[in-house]
Amino acid sequence: MLLLTLFSLIFSCVQMRAQIPYESAQNLENAIPIIRSELENMLAQQLITAEDSQQLFIFFENGGSIQNSYQLQGLLQSDLPTIILNSEHFIILPPRQHRVAHSNLSGQCDLVAKLPTLLHHQNKLLWQQDSSHLGPAFSFQQRCLFFYQNWRFGAQIAKDAGEPVWHQHPTKGFDFMSAYIAWESQQKSNFVQKWILGSYQIQWGQGLQLWSSRGLGKSIDLLHLARNPAGLKPYQGKDEQRFLQGLALTANLPNLELLFISSLKRIDFKALTDTLNEDINLTYTSGLHRTASEMAKRKNGLEQLIGIGIRRKRSLYQCGALILYQHLNVQSIIDSNLILNPKKALSFCSMGGYFQGTWRQLYGYAECVALCSQYNSLRQSIALNAAFIYYLNSKLELGLHFRAYGPSYQSFYSNPISNSSSGSNERACIFQLKWKAFNSLQIQLSNEYVQIPHALQISLLPMSFNETRLLWQLQKSKTQTYSCQLFLRDKTTSALQYRVAFTADFKIEKSEELRIVTQFSAFSAQSSSSKLMAFAWRHQKFSKPLRFEFIFGAFQVPPGSPLLFTYPYLVGFGAQNLRLNGVGTYRLAAFQYTTKDKWQFGILMSSTHLWTQQTSTQIQISIRLRKQF
Amino acid sequence: MMHSLILFILLLQFPFSLCGQIDGLYQIAYTTPGLLNAISENQQQFNPAASHSRATNGLRFYSNTPIQVPGLFSGGFNAYYKFKTIHIYHELGGIYHISTSQIQTVHALALSLYPHLQIGIGLQLAFYAQPKYYGSISMASGRFGMQYQAAPHHFLSFVIYQIGQVELAQMAMEHVWKLDQQVSFAQGLLWHPPYLPTAYISICQQLSSVSLRFSCGVYPQFYSYTLTFTSDNNRRLTVGQSWNKGQGLALQLGLNFR
Question: Quick check: B173 and A516 CB within 8 A?
């Protein structure tokens, strides 16, 4: 947690640009703490831009916390005068002071529902229903969250499109349910600082041994080369796989922090023959239970985790060690390949340690985990990663990361910097550079060489590849930002892939933002290429209850060309993930209306038109209702 | 049948479209690219938002004749005026060939939301007829455009055509750099997704009574130039020629009264 604070401190000292007051907020009563749950509020009040909001969201997801105003300079894309101006509305408190006791009962309830997809085909409008799906074609998620004094309680039920609402087998209940009760001490002197009973997330070290939340991918930004473990936190997400369920607590020892976790959870069991894809963990499925075969996997495994960790945190460094026992008990069909595969075990213990710290202008971390299993040799079951980041001067920062993950290394909930979430059978090195050529121009370079040394599966032969990313970011003024990213991937087993993305952002007024995006991607061996052009207009006026956003895009992804992805960030609905294939256009429109008595209503409409032999348009409508009390 | 008609519409408009992009952009062939931003003249013909504060009223006639396609002709007239704070535009035009014809009317409104941002919406009604084979079809669609002055000499515009007719949807964007009072440079993209995007550049020089515009681009390869003669009493005569790979030469003629 202190990691980026330290970065920023050093960064600020080196650059001699420490211009933001430490405690910025003049009026503490009305100031907004810079924490994850307030991001939407900050965005609504236009204290940060949507891009900055997304940047902070990723930062918080990675376990970071803002403890110092200097951090904002490194994190936010906005220019310094804007940050200084807006910092008057922020409050930055030490982490312990985030624990505000709620004297009265407070909380919020959320309902998000997505209606079945409408299909417009041959002048007819039809509800789209896949005949192989056994449940209704709508999805919903209902969440409630309550605070009372030091207590916190959360519960949710959810289902995806095509899943039955209620299941009879193997356990009765809604398709997905989770709940937790959590208690957090306000006194640092208490022995028990926090405990959670129910569903929770845990982030430890650099994600090599235990990091239950999903990864956010590799980033070109040096700040994301290092992860900041958030430790223990309650879970109320929609992901049906990546969380733990049981009892977990943190306790205070003299100069040390003790962590105890236990988890017992029924999980979907996905055997290797289902996927032949090493990217997917042994027990990690999509969480969908729509068809008979998907439902057959539902909760047919019993996963147990128990672990104890200890860590020491100081202002300039932290280190920790964790012993973790992981066991999977498969109750129904067992894949014979899995049993015969000596590389995968169903029961194992891992021991790991990590260190991260700052020395002068150098920041570094390392994590090493060893797996103890009766099937594999220790040498092949070790995973190691390390990184160094050096602030050479005010305009140049360098980063180096290397990793060596043994072929037999495995963990149910690893999520390290890697090309796969399993964190095994990989050796790689990343070099990154961040150069501020001018005040308005920043150039970032990231080069990675990856080697998959062993053939663990037929579908994944040993190979190597390298990736290069080059990003130019030109901020002409606080209202205009242009960025251009070049991506190259040279793989031994396939042709060179290159991609160019250009983005222009214009802030017309405080309430109006325009964005133009173009992408081009191709394989060198093919004449066809993928193209995307999109335009977005966001209106969010301060103090007005209505906010909306429109996006129109056209894409051309011929067969054999690289797929395109875009991640628009929509008012009230957050980041959307669009995977584009074929030739077509898409439109997104999001509206959000907030009443004075804290009701919030949102609607998202999206339509995608594809030019295929059966030309058709898909229309999706989602609604969101939130009440804060 | 529906798809056949759409194909028919595409074929009908193809000789007039600049680069094989569809939509009723036969107007573009009438002049040249580089007209999505209203730098000195109302351009709501191409971008519903592109109204100009000093060119508030006007009437324009135009025609376009591809030489290498016998018997093919397009033409029409449009009018624009200002009502309170809204710039209104009307157009009536068509394409005629011995075997087929198209009539369309476009109506657009432009509004300045902020000092540097204008938005515009338009409605297009078109009637396509080929009585001897496909019969006829009517289509209604919308247009949406924006024009943004990013800096004193830089203009950006973005337009979506044929909203509501997804098979014909097309988008265009353009940047104009006004180098000085006389010379401006434009670069832009036109794209109907089933085709390759068309990229173009355009340069325009304003002399005392004549302005010259030259444009070229790919795909397909094309060039065009126009000469606009301005008289003292605000009459303008535009003559031009364009060529693109596939359709060959076309002649353009326009008359504008302000």
Answer: yes
